Queue: 4 jobs
Job 1
Amino acid sequence: MTQKTQYDIVIIGAGPAGIQAAIHASRKQTRVLVLGRLANSALFKGHIENYAFVGKVTPGRELLEQGLAQINSFGAEHLAEDLLQLSRDGEQFVLDLESGLEIRTQALVLAMGTAKKKLGVPGEKEFLGQGVSYCVDCDANFFRKATVCVTGDRSAAVDGALTLQKIAARVYLVTDKLEIAPSLKRLLDASAVEQINGKITLIQGEKGRGLQQVELADGRKLVVDGLFIELGSKGALELATQIGVALDTDTMQYIAVNRQQETNIAGVYAAGDITGPPFQMAKAVGEGCVAGMAAATYVRDLQRKAAVQKA
């Protein structure tokens, strides 16, 4: 793929909602980039048998790969990278990727789902909100001058640790097998983050007093005030907060949209699991369709206004 840095629409998420948005947006002759890994989709390891026109049990991976081939045939591009930071620059949105590449776009479709992978260890559930967090961008300020630990093997964990070193007194990064871009690894190695090879197997503390320590598989213990579990790429909540996208007022877990899949931020749309239940492919595809067409219309209107102003 030619490494362009300017697109009309960037779709974050390569699941059913993101792929469908890309199909409709690219067919309207807009420059579209789909950002994300197929394996991050909840569909990747699943099977589909309750979707109209799919007459037999079909592996999710097969459907996603077919979808990727479709968007490529319509001219959309795909980049299997994690997004680290999202910001605004005037009417444009700026995306900083794990490779160091900066992408700019006029419109965004947020379609990266909501599920946060969990460690699945004793104490994780008990101390959620009492020292355990899944969102550095949301909760970092609660740990000023504290000792914190981040665990994970991907870019979100490293980016979280680098963010926390500006806030916390001491930052550990516990990782079993780090899989990140070389440029991000260089930033990590040059930082004050203390890298520890291992896996967390136990989270301990006291009710009412919160988290106190984590234990690794080899028996080592780290005395910490906070633990940030970042086992994948940046999630919906983190990215939404970076540009001021509003969440639903009932649960504060999903992105609020209208019938055009518009968020409260002009040029930003959302589709799929990120907008709430039911968590079904049929809903994701339908919302992706609406979001892709709406984003393309938004971009074309901007471009027409710019052309008139130049005339």
Job 2
Amino acid sequence: MNKVLFITGPTASGKTSLAIKIAKKFNGEIISADSRAIYRGIDIASAKPSLEERDGVIHWGFDIVNVGERFTAYDYQQYAYKKIEDILSRSKLPIVIGGTGLYIDSLLYNYQFSSEPNYELRDSLENKSLEYLVEYCNKNNINMPENKKNKRYIIRAIEKQGYKNNGRKDNDFTSIAVGITTDRSVLKDRIVKRNREFLKLGIIEETICLSNKFGWDNESMTANAYPLIRKYLDNEINLEKLIELMSIRDWQLAKRQITFMKRNKKIHWLQLEEAEAFIEKELS
């Protein structure tokens, strides 16, 4: 087969378990499309599946760079295409899974990126209002820094995602793209339960380790739950408030992910159970 399966959807929608199940049935290997999972050490906060959860399925796209190192959407695209080519060459099924919409789109539509900094764009962003930059991040699924009132920080977050022009060309493979849709109340419950599990797994200890190593001002420490855990460590909030705020932040992320990915007409949106049947039919 010359097919590549894409599974996307909001955080906590059940993408990982579905991808592993499909990979075991169809001799697949998984390529993560998560802009947080690329970092070494960001494990629990990025919901990387454990070795036990991976159940023998090979995973790519984890632990590519150190915290603080530059890694753009262009870098991800080039990395993922090489993995897709390698997996197909071994007559196996590449399964791209994740919630970073720009990563998914860059592969589905084969965006033509510039690998060099776009100074013209940077200058144009400098002239934009803070409100415009915040809206740009929301529309393009870009994680903003904790200090949302600092234009320089927001521009750096945008730059980190790489720059896309209008050029596209066809891929050499056939894409099957599925998005997992979930009832909002169910998704909210899953998010809360997952955050409670993150605490049991040691997300606070992970945060302390990373902050000691890289400092709180590192851009990677301004995303995920880390700023909220810092408030907990500083005794500004208690444990229950931490879970509440982490869940609110994840829900806001899920809404941004849904808004961004719903624009992609190549994605078939299905409930988790329906998605499995649809994928098996497309691959059979």
Job 3
Amino acid sequence: MANDFFWSYTDEPHASRRTQILSQYPQIKELFGPDPFAFLKINVVVLLQLWTVTTLHDASWLRILIIAYFFGSFLNHNLFLAIHELSHNLAFSTPIYNRWLGIFANLPIGVPMSVTFQKYHLEHHRFQGVDGIDMDVPSYIEARYVTNAVSKTIWVIFQLFFYALRPLFLKPKPPGYWEFINLVVQLSLDATVVYSCGWRSFAYLILSTFVGGGMHPMAGHFISEHYVFKPDQETYSYYGPLNLLTWSVGYHNEHHDFPRIPGSKLHKVKEIAPEYYEGLESYKSWSQVIYMYVMDRAVGPFSRMKRKLPRKAE
């Protein structure tokens, strides 16, 4: 296994590819803009998950765990990726409406994260792989200790904790007004669930978030998106059926090339400009990606592309 990251001395590939594609296919600009059905889709998932909460107040812990893994995890991970969509303002043209909808989508997740996520995620797009800025890249501590199949399995199970806590330790940002609103709204919902339905129902929400972000098919996108399995390629797309449940986040090369296009239209980018994507390595199974990551001795947290911040941007 490598003992350091892959270091690139060129700019990230998406800005230049976006320029090339738009010069050849300017009609892609017609795909820019909000998804008119985003509000409806988010409301359906939130209400379905909150209704499920009301049915589990007397359930056994085994039943709660089973329902959380095979049902609730899909709903909460869908909402996490809805928040990802909203961080790009892809539900409404007015940014503040997207922020409020993100706080609403956050409710079944159980932990306030939508406002903070946007701050760090937009930096991931603007400074992909840049050392000290892109918090999507694992830390040196993670990479030093996650070195075999056992430690990688544990890392995958708890990867949501690493994903969420890494930026707070390595590049903390002072919380602002909107983080406070996110916190108050979330704690109000959590308290209401505990008061009305009991701790078991609240535990169901937390378990749905935790197991859905760990050793779970949908969580394979955390690894598939940017972990380097093929030299010289740092972003990978997934063209499998789970895109239907994940706001098409699998179209990840397309998403980084055109972050202003909603997930529901990303497949059209590949249809319009297939020559730019068919030659790139891609996946059809997120579960297979997790298996490859755990079992391949040459792959680990160091399997990410990093670059230094250009002098002109310092």
Job 4
Amino acid sequence: MKVEQIYTGCLAQGAYYIESAGEAIIIDPLRETKPYLDKLEETGAKLKYIFESHFHADFVSGHLDLAKATGATIVYGPMAEPAYDIYSAKDGEVLKLGDVTMTVLHTPGHTMESSTFLLKDASGKDYAIFTGDTLFLGDVGRPDLAIKQGEVTKEDLAGHLFDSLREKIMPLADDVIVYPAHGAGSACGKNLSKETFGLLGDQKKLNYALRADMTREEFIREVTAGLTPAPQYFAKNAMMNKGGYESFSEVLSHGDRPLTPEAFEAIAESEEALVLDTRDRYEFAKMHIPNSIFIGIDGQFAPWVGALIIDIKQPILIVAPEGREEEVVTRLARVGYDNTLGFLDGGLKAWADSGRETDRIEDITAEEFAGRVKNEEVNHILDTRTPSEFLSEHLLAAENFPLDYINNNFAKLDRDETYYLQCGSGYRSLIAASILRARGFSHLVNVQGGWGAVKETDLPKSDFLCPTKMSQEIIDAAVEAVV
């Protein structure tokens, strides 16, 4: 028996490859199928099943393309009713894979169709559970993503989750390995561990949601507390996973094509396409196409695209680091942004050499920023970190302006004022600056290195606010204030 976790850091997502006696299962695959097909060719195994733990909201799964390419059967647990053919397994049903078995455990709560898959080895011993978004390390799946007005509330789903954990998962032995669908960085939970797998016994001791003495009411209260609004693309991805989508090969064919500056500009105008610049942030600040938006490929690229580009069908033109154009198209498609129309061949150099206009954003060091603060040259500081980050430590003069909610809040700003933007490192603040710049804000200054660098300057410590303890009520109030 072979079990391999295939972890994708940008999405904090774990897919799984299980093989026994020449047969294989893949659980929760990403959109692009080539890595899985390459693995099957390498091992010579036949893909028997593609297991889906639920209708994912934070990425578009590759189950449809993978099934078409291999003939494997797509398996969901009870209550899944997609628009394509699947095998709908019953609760407790056992499916055989070579010398081992997989038992389907219906574990509603994150969503109603959520299931956990229990792998038993050749001797029949419980070996591992693949929990999807039901159980993470350190947390459980948020119960507010599948609520239906007038039908089911987040409290209803939290109650189902309590029952699922206590009846299906916690009775299993402590030495069972937990393989979740996500780790730290995912918006599918509140406090996920940086570890990507662990023992169930450790979770029974350390995970707040698995406390043995926890009442149902306490569980519902704690699991639903402090939930920030889900990224707007989540519901759209869930619908794609349920209803079907364009083949990834088709997405790649029209997205990964080189365009001359002339063609690039013509398509941008005729299709009202968004120009998405994914290069290094320092390069973008120095020179970029006017009205383009920066989301760097080397940051949390796909989640920020999903959070900030409201229309999932938005036509997109790409400016990418040389040689990484296909990667950009792929990572956009992972979160459902399939309407990519090509990339700028030759990059910004080709654009500038053609005589076309360029723009820039002032980008200063933390030391220069500190000097301007001391000289009283700075009137408006926008801290683009999350409310909890901001409350933990920030400049007294700063205003919390979270990047997550920029589309809600930019209208509060004055286009005639100068704004200094900072975050934790300079990445999120430059994304915010690019969005504001594209919306007509001309007086913007990004602070390189963000808060981490500003703290190391010689600004008086009296200029900092450093609370020692934050209650959940304070954090919730701060989130409500900026949403």
